[in-house]
Amino acid sequence: MTETRPLAVIVLAAGQGTRMKSPLPKVLHPVGGRPILGAILEAASALGPQRTIVVVGPRQAEVAAFAAAKGAAAAVQDPPHGTGHAAQCALPALEGFAGEVLILYGDTPLLTAETLTRLVAAKAGAALALLGFTPDDPGPYGRLILDADGGLVKIVEAKDASAEERAVRLCNAGGFVLDAGLLRELLGELTADNAQGEYYLTDIVTGARRRGLKAVAFDAPADDVMGVNSQQERAAAEAVFQARARAAHMAAGVMLADPATVYFSADTAIGPGTAIGQNVVFGPGVSIAAGVTIKPFCHLEGVSIAAGATIGPFARLRPGSVIGEDVHIGNFVETKAATLEKGAKANHLTYLGDVSVGAGANIGAGTITCNYDGFFKHRTEIGAGAFVGSNTALVAPVRIGAGASIGAGSTITKDVAADALALERSAQSEKPGWAARFRALMGARKAAAAKKD
Ligand code: UD1
Ligand code: CA
């Protein structure tokens, strides 16, 4: 291991990402339910950097805001003239820093903290360590040219490479570790003398060699460093992410009925012994205890679920839902900002929005919390042990006391006291024998009409 020196991280994210053909900046495209840039910042933060700087392009306020939200500084590259130029633009934000600098490209969503740790460790005894990989198809990647001792001589971009150089399979994945002072010197020497007329960051390797310094390449697992340049590559990265997530959750004791049909986010947390049915999607912000059952075809986002709960099939749990122990949520039930306490049940066809439901309450089929008046949202409170009959509309703001009963089909606009019965519907009337007389009359009419024909 190298001695532990202070670390700074620079993430290059200013490229136009034109190959994505999307108005969304490339590094904000999601993989595993979080922006690509977020994945990189998270992996890098595990190394405990003192400073993190994200280089953003002009008109990329969204990227700068995202970086700021993650505690990173933003440096603007305007206009972008290549990866070397991007790194130069980060230097002012590095002012006064002494230590190691880790430079990463912003378009590698599957980077892990482990790979970065190994890259930093690989620098031991050298002046520069580079993140390399050996893809099946080296295609457009920069080729790593090594000397007889395995030292890194230079990086040649595919567009600038000879046929012989293009045949090399070891490639540049986009990660550099070197001393901050050396980085400043090497960046000062870059020229744009190449096929693309850009300042290539990769040329710092040539600069280090010119000084007689040793550069080494760390050959990382190809899946960890795949770059995203197109929608197809984003989808390919997503597929690798999902395969990893499925394997990790199963290794932690989660039962997946059909792993290939379950989709996770990077922050999905699930306790051991929880069973997940087919075709379930976890958006961001889901945490599920041990021993929960999620039946097929559910969509969950921003929800926590306690032990013993049963969800679905066909349930949609939206952000702010807090599902307590042993709660039952059945088919075609939607929740949003809904707290359901222990043992509460909403088994069929219900919308529960901006609501708290007390322990053991029973919400009948077709219950709707009318939480929106067209301008503002309002809350509904349902007390413990309350019974809400089928097809009830609860017009918020409204409170149903503990143990109260609501008759089916009611539209409840006023608070209901604890243990009371509330009914809101017209009285039922009954006419004895009416149906039989009606049948006889109409039957006779029909027979008479048939005779005429
Ligand atoms: C780059 C490397 C190539 C490597 C590949 C790995 C160079 C010259 N080439 O090529 O050797 O195999 O990545 O994926 O470094 N960026 C800026 N400002 C710019 C240009 C790019 O910030 O002016 C950022 C981009 O936002 C991106 C990263 O740098 O996150 C890499 O740029 P990209 O254009 O994707 O480089 P590649 O052509 O993929
Ligand atoms: Ca790239």
Mean of pLDDT: 97
Rg result = 31 Å
**For the terminal residues, how far apart are their CA atoms?**
103 Å
Tell me the number of strands. Answer: 34
Provide structural commentary.
It is built from 10 helices and 34 strands. Helices cover about 25% and strands about 30% of the residues. The longest helix is centred in the middle third of the chain and has 21 residues, at about 230-250. The strands form 5 sheets. The protein has a 20-stranded parallel beta sheet that branches. Strands 5-4-1-6-10-7-11 form a 7-stranded mixed beta sheet. It has a 3-stranded parallel beta sheet with strand order 27-30-33, with no helix packed on it. It has about 450 residues and is α/β, with parallel strands linked by helices. The site of uridine-diphosphate-N-acetylglucosamine (UD1) has 28 residues, from helix 3 and strand 10. Uridine-diphosphate-N-acetylglucosamine binds next to helix 3 and strand 10.
Structural descriptors:
single chain; 453 residues; alpha/beta; 20-stranded parallel sheet; 10 helices; binds uridine-diphosphate-N-acetylglucosamine; binds calcium ion
Write the layout of secondary structure elements.
Blueprint (H helix, E strand, L loop, with lengths): L6 E6 L17 E2 L2 E2 H10 L5 E6 L4 H9 L3 E4 L6 H12 L5 E6 L7 H10 L5 E6 L9 E4 L5 E5 L6 H4 L4 E9 H8 L16 H7 L4 E6 L1 H4 L5 H21 L3 E2 L5 E2 L5 E2 L4 E2 L3 E3 L3 E3 L4 E2 L4 E2 L2 E3 L4 E2 L4 E2 L3 E3 L4 E13 L4 E13 L4 E2 L4 E3 L9 E3 L4 E2 L4 E3 L2 E3 L4 E2 L4 E2 L8 E2 L11 H19 L1
Parallel strand pairs: 1-4, 1-6, 4-5, 7-11, 12-15, 13-16, 14-17, 15-18, 16-19, 17-20, 18-21, 19-22, 20-23, 21-24, 22-24, 23-24, 24-25, 25-26, 25-28, 26-29, 27-30, 28-31, 29-32, 30-33, 32-34
Antiparallel strand pairs: 2-3, 6-10, 7-10, 8-9
The chain binds uridine-diphosphate-N-acetylglucosamine and calcium ion.
